[in-house]
Design a protein that fits this description.
heterodimer; A: 474 residues; alpha/beta; Amidase signature (AS) enzymes; B: mainly alpha; 3 helices; transferase (chain B); protein biosynthesis (chain B); ATP-binding (chain B); ATP binding (chain B); GatC (chain B)
């Protein structure tokens, strides 16, 4: 029999219905796990002081009305760049240390309205500037598979929370890889919705033209449900789409992938990629074929150019967004920014400055157009493209030292889809050196249902979604 | 498909090897309202030179006649009715709650005029 922390969202709800346990039982169970393991993993920066009281109210609601909200009583871990009333929010930066949000972010409002309980806020790269969680001003998070390894980032705390089973599901955000890459390194499921599918209001901005909130979960099915809850036009974010949100969970549980055409991106099998990682991607392609899909090689621009585009776009937008941190209305002074944040603000200030705007920013945005056009051409024929999420498994703590482009290099395979605003599911596809490797299944904008359907079918027909025994690994 | 650019790099503002000097870094820091330590100035000068070199690879891609993309989903001119929506407004005491210095229900801000411009405004 599964223990409480091992249950999926559906299984939690079954447990509530059968009265096998209460919401208070479940929340207390997670809080005791967090108390035990968080000192070793550094996943949570702050806990919700009202979690047990909220769980008690939910138990009362379930007794009176049953389960009529989609995430009722689901304990979640929330990345610390989402503003949450009553739980401090820092974006893992000293500049916001002690900040108590004055309003609730749009996506966390939706999660609360759906009945979720927030256990606490998770560690991340400071201001999401990184792919390791090592740039956090509050110390790195450790990978539950091996505490000497990084969890990835920037949503490293949320991915580690799901992997270590310190929450049923988690919320992350992705600018370029920040959901998929930590999910890959921690061996869990990450889902990046299309840009503009979920609102950014109250999500501390990094790069406004690519920031996308999304779930990290135990299964594609759980991710699909959380994604559905947080999606939709947000009156507080003019860049959200008015397109109706499909009921993602209803697209799952396909028995095969007959009629699905998948493109395997040739350039994503990098020349310097380890053979054992390449093999897992080729094995995944074979698995898709055995499920009835047609898999063919497709070609995209050399991903090295995505590094240049992403670096310019992201640094430029960072320099603009972080200008608001002046220590006057909230937070501390700009001296509190860490080195990585200063580096990004500075480079963005440079690329936007007089005389350089056309050469760098406009040029990058033109190459971005070419990338978008290439994807559009591919999606005329193919339902999805696949490749590795990251060139290799989790790197060791300290790997980011003196590597100012660490994140860009680690995210080389996910930057194109991010700057193009596409949707993409990341699922585990095997292990090397005892560490998980992630597969990305990327679809055209607003094709969330398709990406989730393909990822779900793959996941149910493989057994790579595993959880480490943290009593042994830690 | 991705032929080396036929454009003259100098014409569109590119030079192939850019050296970002410590003086450049100091100028950027002032624009960005950041105070840097001497070792950070030197560190960033070296790192930015490398990063700009990498960015300049984009010059290998011909983008003449290619428009820039600023918004990926194609939305344009999203507006709302010009009416007061109280759900968008923080009550004054909540808005002021996180500020260190307030006076009579307002934020206190540092003086920005008639100051020595070499000083930080904060």
């Amino acid at each position: 029999m599964k223990q409480l922390h091992e249950l999926t969202i559906k299984e939690v709800h079954e447990g509530y219905r059968s009265k096998s346990f209460s919401c208070v039982d479940l929340v207390k169970h997670f809080l005791s796990r967090i108390e035990k393991y968080n000192p070793k993993l550094n996943v949570f920066l702050a806990l919700n002081p009202n979690a047990i009281a909220q769980a008690a109210a939910i138990d009362k609601e379930i007794a009176e009305k049953g389960i009529d909200r989609e995430l009722l009583g689901i304990p979640m871990a929330i990345k610390d760049n989402f503003l949450t009333i009553g739980i401090s929010t820092t974006a893992s930066s000293h500049i916001l240390e002690g900040y108590m949000p004055q309003y609730e972010s749009s996506v966390t409002s939706k999660l609360l309205a759906a009945g979720a309980i927030f256990l606490g806020k998770t560690n991340m790269d400071s201001f999401a500037h990184g792919s390791s969680t090592e740039t956090s001003d509050f110390g790195p998070t450790h990978n539950p598979w091996n505490p000497d390894k990084l969890p990835g980032g920037s949503s490293g705390g949320s991915a580690a929370a799901v992997s270590a089973q310190l929450a049923t599901a988690a919320l992350g955000s992705e600018t370029a890889g920040s959901i998929r890459q930590p999910a890959a390194w921690c061996g869990v499921t990450g889902f990046k919705p299309t840009y503009g599918r979920a609102g950014r209001y109250g999500c501390i901005a990094m790069a406004s033209s690519t920031d996308s909130p999304g779930p990290i979960a135990k299964t594609v099915a759980d991710a699909a449900l959380v994604a559905k809850v947080i999606s939709g036009q947000d009156p507080f974010d003019a860049t959200t789409s008015p397109a109706p949100v499909e009921n993602y969970p209803t697209f799952l549980n396909n028995k095969d992938l007959k009629g699905v055409k998948i493109g395997m991106v040739k350039e994503y099998l990098l020349t310097d990629m380890r053979d054992d990682v390449k093999k897992l991607i080729l094995d995944a392609a074979e698995k898709f074929r055995s499920l009835g899909a047609i898999v063919e090689e497709v070609s995209l621009m050399d991903p090295k150019y995505a590094i240049g585009v992403y670096t310019v776009v992201q640094r430029s937008e960072v320099s603009s967004n972080l200008a608001r941190f002046d220590g006057i209305r909230f937070g501390h002074t700009r001296d509190s920014f860490c080195e990585e944040t200063k580096r990004r603000i500075m480079l963005g200030t440079y690329t936007l400055s007089s005389g350089y705007y056309d050469a760098y920013y406009k040029k990058a945005q033109a190459v971005r157009t070419k990338m978008i056009d290439q994807f559009a051409e591919i999606f005329k024929t193919y339902d999805a493209v696949i490749g590795a999420v990251s060139p290799g498994p989790a790197l060791s703590l300290g790997a980011t030292k003196n590597q100012p482009m660490f994140g860009e290099m680690e995210d080389i395979l996910v930057e194109q889809s991010s700057v193009a605003g596409l949707t993409s599911a990341g699922v585990p596809c095997g292990f090397v050196d005892g560490l998980p490797i992630g597969l990305q299944i990327t679809c055209d904008q607003f094709q969330e249902s398709k990406a989730l359907m393909i990822a779900d079918c793959y996941q149910r027909n493989t057994d790579f979604q595993q959880f480490p025994d943290i009593d042994k690994t830690l | 498909m991705y032929l080396p650019s036929t454009e003259n790099p100098a014409k569109i503002g590119f030079v192939h090897k850019v050296t970002v000097t410590p003086d450049d870094v100091k100028k950027i820091a002032k624009l960005a309202n950041l105070k840097l330590q001497k070792d950070e100035v030197d560190l960033f000068a070296g790192q930015f030179t490398e990063t700009v070199d990498m960015i300049n690879r984009l010059n290998e891609i011909n983008t003449s006649d290619v428009p820039a993309t600023y918004q990926v989903t194609g939305l344009t001119n999203i507006s709302r009715d010009d009416v007061i929506d109280l759900t968008r407004i923080l009550p004054q005491e909540v808005a002021l709650r996180e500020a260190k210095l307030t006076s009579h229900g307002f934020f206190v801000v540092p003086r920005v005029i008639d100051t020595d411009e070499t000083e930080s405004v904060i």
